[in-house]
Amino acid sequence: MLPWSNSSATPLSQLLSFIFTFLSFLPRISWALDWIDYSPDGFATMTHYSLPENFIAACGCTSTSTNYPTAAMNQMAYGSSTSYGPACGQCFNLTLLNSFLSNPPFYPNVTKSVVIKITDLCPLSHSGWCNATTHGPNAAGHYLNFDLAWPSSSIPNDFFPSNEPFYGYTDFGVWNISYQSVSCTNWEGWNHAAALGSVANLGYSACCPGNPTGNTNDTCPSYSDNNGIPPDTQTSGFAISSSISFLPIVTLAVSLLSHML
Ligand SMILES: *[C@@H]1O[C@H](CO)[C@@H](O)[C@H](O)[C@H]1NC(C)=O
Ligand SMILES: *[C@@H]1O[C@H](CO)[C@@H](O)[C@H](O)[C@H]1NC(C)=O
Ligand SMILES: *[C@@H]1O[C@H](CO)[C@@H](O)[C@H](O)[C@H]1NC(C)=O
Ligand SMILES: *[C@@H]1O[C@H](CO)[C@@H](O)[C@H](O)[C@H]1NC(C)=O
Ligand SMILES: *[C@@H]1O[C@H](CO)[C@@H](O)[C@H](O)[C@H]1NC(C)=O
């Protein structure tokens, strides 16, 4: 008799363990294939959210980056479900086109543009402006949403054009915009070394290239592809999982909150 045949549990448990291991990789594999592949320029929506000055958002860019125009990008284009993703550090020129929720739509008589650096993640939700996936766009028909950190010391308070006498309000909330991927040498923070790069004390759990080009040597990988998705610790207070650092959890919780407001 061969040694293994009187212990039928061994091959079965090996098989089960193989199946389990295989299954546990599946969500990660399908997740990785599902990031939105957007073109370097096109149309998008722009919303705005409040990011406190000096706040270290999902990418882990330096606190000084908040002194210059920054934005969060919708999760499935950002390229990670938590912490940093390939979009971190990238710069875009955003130009306001029209409001479309207002009745009638508002077409400003001035052209307003801002060059932003992506420092934050706008979490995927079922509805809302950051809900685009490879299966479909957001309610404006766009696959990208830029959530502008505004008010900001670097962007005038009258950045968003309005016509209060006609509409009765000044904030349209969401805009149809055009965007262009641009070199970060066009970003207002470019000549300020402290505004570039990631915070030092986060080590490898932060990633914020000064001017990412898409090459692997200057562009962030996807945190969630490489590390999986950390457990949801939002309702359990400040429980810290040993494999992930504290800050991304806090940042995600705060950015989730601020994007819901
Ligand atoms: C951004 O777009 C506006 C409007 O098209 C344009 O005038 C401006 O030169 C652009 N800025 C950069 C840095 O590409
Ligand atoms: C996003 O939400 C809008 C409604 O707000 C919906 O029409 C659209 O289908 C949603 N997109 C996806 C990809 O779920
Ligand atoms: C956004 O602007 C583009 C270009 O003008 C236009 O084709 C598109 O219909 C607009 N989308 C919305 C939702 O207003
Ligand atoms: C531009 O539009 C605003 C209202 O949206 C109006 O107050 C202003 O007079 C207009 N400017 C010009 C030059 O037409
Ligand atoms: C990345 O690699 C390219 C060549 O593949 C090189 O030209 C470039 O300087 C490198 N960038 C950095 C930031 O190391």
Automatic annotation (TrEMBL):
Entry keyword Nucleotide-binding: no
UniProt keyword annotations, A-Z: Signal
A Pfam short name: EXPB1_D1
PROSITE patterns (UniProt xref): EXPANSIN_EG45 (PS50842)
Domain Expansin-like EG45: 56-189
Stored InterPro entries: Expansin/allergen_DPBB_dom, RlpA-like_sf
Leader sequence segment: 1-32
Protein name per Swiss-Prot or TrEMBL: RlpA-like double-psi beta-barrel-protein domain-containing protein-containing protein
